[in-house]
Amino acid sequence: MKIIVDAFGGDNAPLEIIKGSMLAVDEYGVDIILCGDEDKINRCVKDNNIVLKNTEIVDVKGVIEMTDDAKSVLKEKAESSMGVGFKLLNEGKGDAFVSAGNTGAVTVGATFITKRIKGVKRPCIASVMPSADKPFMLMDCGANAECRPEFLYQFGVMGSLYMKNILKVDNPRVALANNGAEETKGTPVVKEAYELMKDADFNFIGNIEGRQIPYGDADVVVADGFTGNMILKTYEGVAKVLMDGIKGIFKKNIFTMLCAVGVGGGIKKMKKQFDYKEYGGAALLGVKKPVIKAHGSSDARSFKNAIKQAVWFLDYNLINEIEKAFEVKND
């Protein structure tokens, strides 16, 4: 299993990307192709006493910055670490591609270089998220700011397949993010999507309000990319504020520090449960090969877990499952 990695995508590249890739080699037994400036990679490896294992370096000098136009991956920066990574994936030189770089560029590259699965109208960014119960999938998290009803319907199809085949959820519950649980609530697009989903083959349970999402009341939460991204970022921000607040309370004085000793185990468990680094990033669902968008601020552990998602895709042949679902719907 060979994973292509954008070595210069993300805030902490290339050090944390290289370290995370080596953790993935050790844990998952994968081979790695690092795309990026070979001189800088070798210098980073030497300066940080990293041992490269099962790794090939493809020398690429260009980098897509977070401020670059998303379409630059197709033309102006086609020879960047990300652009070359997509090219190698398209040529079959690797089995999956992982980048912590520019989200828009990853989406454009996945859509126009890797290309969509036949029948899929729009690929979407699908993030596995923590809840009080168990992980759920939030989609779309930013690829499609505006959606048509049929896009949302297809997101439900793909999200259900992901949860069923990869996270082994029996009969995943699919819900539409909305400002009310009633069928009559929401924008015209959401109302029409509701009507489509009522007759779906997947287990559609209706609308879900924002306050119910953290409780795990659905296994797949479907939204347009604007709404989904707002939910994702708010979710991460609130979790961090709460954990920082709890930490501050227990560090207040000697008595609170003593109290922390008694509840420390429970707090660590809760922190791990709601830590986005446990999931590493988001899958681009609807494209022909596995593409994973790692968090832009990924550290080594987070990036390793993003590679884990690519491994899941390949182990459970999710692309084939999505292709079969859309073959049936196109007949």
Q: Radius of gyration from the CA trace?
A: 20 Å
Number of DSSP helices?
10
What proportion of the residues is helical, as a percent range?
40-55%
| Overall 3D form | globular
What structural class do helix, strand and pairing data support?
A: alpha/beta
User: What kind of assembly state do the chains in view correspond to?
Assistant: single chain
Average pLDDT number: 92
N/C terminus separation? 33 Å
Strand fraction equals: 15-25%
Count of β-strands? 11
Q: Profile the largest sheet.
A: 11 strands, mixed
Would you identify the regions where 5 or more consecutive residues have pLDDT less than 50? none
Element-level helix/strand string: EHEHEHEHEEHEHEEHHEEHH
Can you characterise this structure?
- The protein is an alpha/beta fold and 331 residues long.
- It is built from ten helices and eleven strands.
- The protein has helices at residues 15-28, 38-47, 81-90, 103-115, 149-165, 188-198, 225-250, 254-273, 300-315, 318-330; strands at 2-6, 31-36, 55-59, 96-99, 124-129, 136-139, 173-177, 203-208, 220-222, 281-285, 291-294.
- An eleven-stranded mixed β-sheet has the order 3-2-1-4-11-10-5-6-9-7-8, sandwiched between helices.
- Strand 5 (124-129) and strand 6 (136-139) form a beta hairpin.
- Helix 1 packs across helix 9 (300-315) and helix 5 crosses helix 10 (318-330).
- The radius of gyration is 20 Å and the shape is globular.
- It starts with a strand and ends with a helix.
- The mean pLDDT is 92.
